Amino acid sequence: MRLTVLEDYFFLLSSISMHKTLEMCFKSRIFTLSHHVSSTKAAFWESYVIYSPISDSLAPKSLYKNAIFFSSAPSLNPDLNPNPSPLLGSLFEEGRDFDDPLARDGHTHAAKEVPMGSLGDPGEFGKESSPARDPNSELKPDSGCRFGAFDDFDGEGDEDGESDDQMEGGDGNDDDDFRVLDIFDGNADLKEESKGFEQEEKDESRHPLVREVCRLIGLRHSWNPKLEGELRHLLRSLKPSQVSAVLHSQPDQRIAVSFFSWADRQWRYRHAPEVYYTMLEILSKTKLCQASRRILRLMIRRGISRQPEAFAYLMVSYSRAGKLRSAMRVLNLMQKDGCGPDLSICNTAIHVLVMANRLEKALRFLDRMQRVGITPNVITYNCLIKGFCDAHRVEDALKMIQEMPLKGCLPDKISYYTVISFLCKEKMVGEVRELIKKMKTDANLLPDQVTYNTLIHVLAKHGHADEALEFLRESEEKGFRVDKVGFSAIVHSFCCDGRMEEAKGIVNEMFRKECFPDVVTYSAVVNGFCRIGKIDQARMMLKHMFKHGCKPNTVTYTALLNGLCKIGNSLEAWEMLNKSEEEWWTPNSTTYSVVMHGLRREGKLKEACDLVMQMLHNGFFPTPVEINLLIHALCREGKAGEAKKFMEECQRKGCTVNVVNFTTIIHGFCREDDLESALSLLDDMYLSNRHPDVVTYTVVVDALGRKGRFEEATELIKKMLHRGLVPTPVTYRTVIHRYCAKGRVEELLKLLEKMLVRQEFRTAYNQVIEKLCGFDRLDEAYKVLGKVLRTASNADAVSCHILMDSYLTKGLPLQSYKVACRMFHRNLIPDVHLCQKVSNKLVSLGHSDEGGRLMIKFVERGLMLPQHQ
């Protein structure tokens, strides 16, 4: 049998000593080529290595030591690998594809299931790591792994970017989410179930290994094989708690996900269960719900024990992302996985339902969990109390607080603070005082400084400065010291109301009590003076700040610049902005936007455009809305060409430009009757991947119709419909107006048929008749009457009356009579007073028979004529 080139190479290796053979294979990873060989050839090579006649003494111990499968945890599922060979398990682990016949024979450890880039960006870490693996071709899991459960959940369509803040659907299937409570084991220790592992209390974030790994991760954008090799070497030396510390130390959660994915793909490393829970905990504080779902799927596939805590993390992540329906589906996944619920997952579910405004379902969930033996705690009731307050059912919230002691759960201060905050928003100060008394008598909770600070901040935030000041006085009478934060809140509330004298009095009181105001307090006062136009007072307050050793910050100067722009001194504001380096303060994007809008409002458009360029040079980018305001101002002054150049310059410097900006400039060209430039810019939109919307097409069609270029307008409408855009009522009115003005009724009717197929517009033909009557094209309007009388609605009667009145005004009562007869034929009763005028006009012109028959039609239908009313 003729040997292949690969087999020849294997036999060449077998002629060397076993020591050098394994050493060469270890260094060059020649075993990664094994998935290209058939199962027979691979089995032959494996048996050759295992049953080699070379004595074990020829292989050095260091080689065996280096070849052992390293991991941050013990083997996760030893049943997958009975009697494994540690040497072969390590050698064949990296680079082997799941189609490898050795993997099917079960001679190695469980392969890593995560494909490259499934959890993070593979470009961030490990560009030379192991090849991508197929997640659907995994080794057979143990009985604890439930593939079907998670696969069902994975097909729910969550990746469509849906945002279901209001959970839809009827109440018929709402209780399906409660089935997970049926598998609750009342004899289990909930405290033990809620902790999947013991976390070390020692802080590992300052460990030298952790710091070095974080440093290397920070250099990921300039990585080379040497740096990656160092990180891979350090990874194998980290304990699970240290890996968790590395994940917690990342400034961006996406970087943590990328590192988690990169580390999971490395040879001789496997994440410990603790690391999975750490990653889920980190992601629960973000909106990266898809990454959380993939990590939980990975735990299920690898047979890692799943506690309710893991599912709770996923629910919270879904909730933060606004996918509340998907968050509740986690309970179904939990049931299929066989994981019993505990109090923490129940509290999470109730919180999700409250956030979704499904308070009634949350109450049913509470009743169901109590029936299965899960006793709610104060967190459970606090979630429901917040739900009652959000639904403006404060009486039910107070009733729940009263019933909590009867159920063996005393309310805490959070319970009362939630209701107090709602009452403060509604300015129900009397009820607040009564609730504070009940908090003291019923729950033995004395109002402390935190209580008064909460009252002061909530009242001041919602504009109730006088009531906040009352509680501040009461707090001081009881011996509590109010800090500068509380005073600043009241000062800010007074300034927002324009009550600067009261605000200055509070500031002076702070000096008397040696509670010196900080930059926040001063900034509020400066902003207050600027709001009422007293710029001189604001400048004096700025000097006062320097005098007392308080340096103004960016917010302070931005408030002053905004005040200057409001009184029309935008050029002075621009000069102050340019002197920011001399004054040792740094403007931000809001500062630039304030001055830019001030210049725009004063008509200084050139200066505003120059400021935007300066803004871009300093690394700040205006929003598309701000760009559009400036573009619109240029177009309004007939400078569409300059607006186009400005937009292109912004786009060239990295600004985000959307379809609205293009449409605004196109509209500017159309107003200047420069249709060629407008059509050229319309084509440029496709080149820059900014597809025009229905507003863009409507603007161009209106301009073409105004110029009488109906062939081009018709083709543009057809192109719009071909691209799947739905015409709006404005589009219909524009097309009808332009075509009727030029009498292109036949073309209009054909075009309307195509448009109505895409989007129904019930009054389209009514508007055609009304427009034709307005342009004195009554004969064309009469031809369209048949399309209007198909429905015989009130809107159709109004259109017929307009046509009748137009005929009557032009001295054609006989035509009005015909319109009325057609209305009667469709069982649509015309206006009797208008018909009386038509009848009188017919009689005066010698058509007495028609005039009489018209009025008889009313009598035949049992209607009373005007003279008999």
Automatic annotation (TrEMBL):
InterPro entries: PPR_domain-containing, PPR_rpt, TPR-like_helical_dom_sf
Keywords: Repeat
Entries under Pfam families matching the protein: PPR (PF01535), PPR_1 (PF12854), PPR_2 (PF13041), PPR_3 (PF13812)
The keyword Repeat belongs to this UniProt entry's keyword annotation: yes
Official protein name in the record: Pentatricopeptide repeat-containing protein At5g41170, mitochondrial
Native species: Elaeis guineensis var. tenera (Oil palm)
Renumbered residue ranges of the record's region Disordered: 110-179
Biased composition (Basic and acidic residues): 124-143
Residue spans of the PPR repeats: 307-341, 342-376, 377-411, 448-482, 483-517, 518-552, 553-587, 588-622, 623-657, 658-692, 693-727, 728-758
Biased composition (Acidic residues): 151-177
